[in-house]
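Priority: low. Protein: Bidirectional sugar transporter SWEET. Input follows.
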Amino acid sequence: MVVLGSLQTLATCKDAAGIAGNIFAFGLFLSPVPTFRRIIRNESTEQFSGLPYIYALLNCLITAWYGLPMISSDNLLVTTVNSVGAVFQLVYVIIFIRHAEKAKRLRMLGLLLTVFGLFAVIAIGSLLIVDFEARHLTIGFISCAALISMFASPLFIINLVIRTRSVEYMPFHLSLSTFLMSTSFLLYGIFNFDPFVYVPNGIGTLLGIIQLFLFSYYKSSSRDDSREPLIVSYS
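Result:
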């Protein structure tokens, strides 16, 4: 009876963490909206790159596939959040293609077809693996590697903030959303005993903490600097 109660509590905690992660993820999915408002308004992609959205689309598709019952056990909340994410990224890519120059448009179309082709190979290939555990491990490692590689972007931003001593290019809401979503899925993975979920999200949580610390440090530093007289000393 005690064991049953513990298992039910664990399942409840896991579901709560997963639902929270799904909610916090919307902060990340909506973060490019100002960029695409500008693209639509100016009818040009200007100097913006579409590669982050292409890569995010592939990442969402792979991770959503990993969460399906045929691949892993009891991970549907991983599928829901990444399915929604894939829709957002696809919409962003379509808008980008519509407003891009001809050369950039053709390149983005080629990359989009490559993403769908690569995902089809991964999905169909995994279904050809008869053993469930082997299928789970194969897609798990691919999904985990894709998630970890996504953290190259936060690392670049962290480096930029430290070099420029400015948080101009690190919006607070984006850092907070990253931290909250990663923490939620870190707990979700722990409660579900799934290292393919808690390892990459553990890294995401750590990077989120670093971003929030840097935001607090350099934001206050910027305010302090702004109070100083605007006098240059040549001594």
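The CA atoms of residues 154 and 207 lie 7 Å apart. The longest helix spans residues 195-227.
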